[in-house]
């Protein structure tokens, strides 16, 4: 791998993170490795990304993360497959099949189920094709049958496992915490306890029963101690550290008090603190369950996109259509798509006609009609007709795969606004530990005793919530980019999503962006006694012999019978001289034909309107003027109006002359026109606007727009644009509807507003909660915070942040 003058991006899964302090610790550990640059950890997606400018030993990265108290895993690329096998009769057969498949490179976890005559295995589709698996099965003497494949999405399974784990922990801990709370606090609320555990009659039994009930809860929450406490000694304390220290102190004091009661000091019976440790762990387990449940919904957009791709397709093999795994489709294969089926890969229609629902890709609800030679997109749904198509793009290169990768990258990235939370999180947990220690010492010094002082310290430890800080930005970015993908608006990263809300000027390329990008015949004006139909027949007959865009527009506008053209001669920059049905015909600009002053005035008027006049003369006399124009998109005017209402300046940039440019600009309501710009100068014009202090968005679709797209603060490529424009842009519109520009800016504004709400809540919660827990208001108003209430507040703080972010899924734009 060459690293000269470029950087290679690496991405891994980080396990064991719980809060913003964890994020900071991992980033700090990895940044110390020579050759690693710009490490970014996203708490919501649990991904670590960084760039390397030279050869870096992966083992050093893994070791650095492990030393910080976390674990690193490579992102799995495996898929799970289940294949029917015919001909197996005994254990020896199953062993033979397992052995044959197991030898293949890129296969793991091969398992044969003899009772169902199937074999399941995981394989890397980048290394192995299913066809190779079938060949080794046949070579072993058995017949491979139908195949069912499913995406092996480890992150999804991991999230489901985490949700199930926290649910089990909560149910288990709650089952012990509820009777523990009743026994510990019930007598204070008038509930009577059996004499055997009555604190006044049998104080030791009262304490021992609570200890017995607390031990299972502590075991259920052992991660707080096994991970949190060691992180304190590693110099990277996190949320687990705070909870572990708080509940550990309460539990330890409870054991100490129990021993004192056993020694006859019954005064300790009123302050055991077992219930604080048990209930806090139960509440935080509930909070973690709800948080993970909510976070699982943030990646709905990715899962919806992944589910668009069918698992199998009907591929022509020796004149018969066979059902094969989608991974086996190759470029050039002929596929049959029946009504109701999803189109497997990108391709071109060979025969047949139908309507295709592209809403999940482009965001447009109206189905698209297709016929022979139409382009189709993998993952879209065929509605009402069968057709055959040729695969042109397969695997990871399909548009759907590229969209999924783009959304995944965006959701794993960090927005600049997250830096504030990152800085705070680096000092947050150590600051809380100091505050907790100071709180304990102050109240002890003031003479409030060990129990009261410890209660205040525990409340400080368990109310502080670095989770809310860590989740405030990434969850909103995930939901915002996912919502954008559902609307056909793809943000490349979090920075693009954030910057878009600041846009003050939008520069539109004219051709193919504001206009349709292809000339059309919009009108025919005849002179004298010439009939329109006859002129069109003659013009189309001549134009059919040429590939010039203007001639293509003329021939495409006529569907009747053509005349024989006996001679044809093209003159560059002027027009065509031809003989049709024995008549000499000229078709071109006004300099190529003879016009009267009145006819010339009419031609000039057309030019001033932004239309291209093509003059047709028959036997030396002007017969007609064909008006050709690059038609303005229907949605351009509404899009410009929407942007103006937001206070955004609009510009149009084109290589056309100023008269033509102004004519188009007037149609859509753009006052600022930059005309006669050479392709290589477009980026300079954008740079000039940036120097004026404007935050500039460039909208384009062509190769010559790419430098300008890259130069702008935000580059937007429309969906019909070239691959180069799409690769260069910060935002990609999957449809040609320019109204999506307004929607992209509005979505960005709503997402940033949501992030600011989350950050405000996270900071406000901690700024108010920590002093309250420390007893700042106790001396003034007698207000103190019970550690269990503090634990409940911590448990639900991060849930509230994630829930607020999820509101973006419902936002109407």
Outline the biggest β-sheet.
Answer: 7 strands, mixed
Structural category:
alpha+beta
Model regions low in confidence, pLDDT < 50 over at least 5 residues: 1-5, 149-153
Q: Using only CA atoms, what is the Rg?
A: 35 Å
Distance between the terminal alpha carbons, to the nearest Å? 45 Å
For the structure shown, list the relevant keywords.
813 residues; alpha+beta; Alpha-Beta Plaits; 7-stranded mixed beta sheet; 6-stranded antiparallel beta sheet; 29 helices; 48% helix; disordered N terminus
Topology:
Blueprint: E1 8-15, H1 20-31, E2 36-42, E3 47-52, H2 58-67, E4 71-74, E5 79-86, H3 91-102, E6 107-113, E7 118-123, H4 130-139, E8 143-150, H5 154-185, H6 203-220, H7 223-226, H8 228-233, H9 239-262, H10 274-297, H11 300-308, E9 312-317, E10 320-325, E11 334-337, E12 346-352, E13 354-357, H12 359-362, E14 368-370, E15 375-376, E16 381-382, E17 387-393, H13 399-412, H14 418-445, H15 449-463, H16 466-486, E18 489-491, H17 494-500, E19 505-509, H18 510-514, E20 515-526, H19 532-543, H20 549-556, E21 565-571, E22 575-580, E23 583-588, H21 597-608, E24 612-618, E25 621-632, H22 636-645, E26 649-653, H23 658-668, E27 672-674, H24 682-691, E28 696-700, H25 706-711, E29 714-718, H26 723-728, E30 731-733, H27 739-774, H28 778-781, H29 787-806
Summarize the structure.
With 813 residues, the protein is an alpha+beta fold. Helix 14 (418-445) packs antiparallel against helix 15 (449-463).
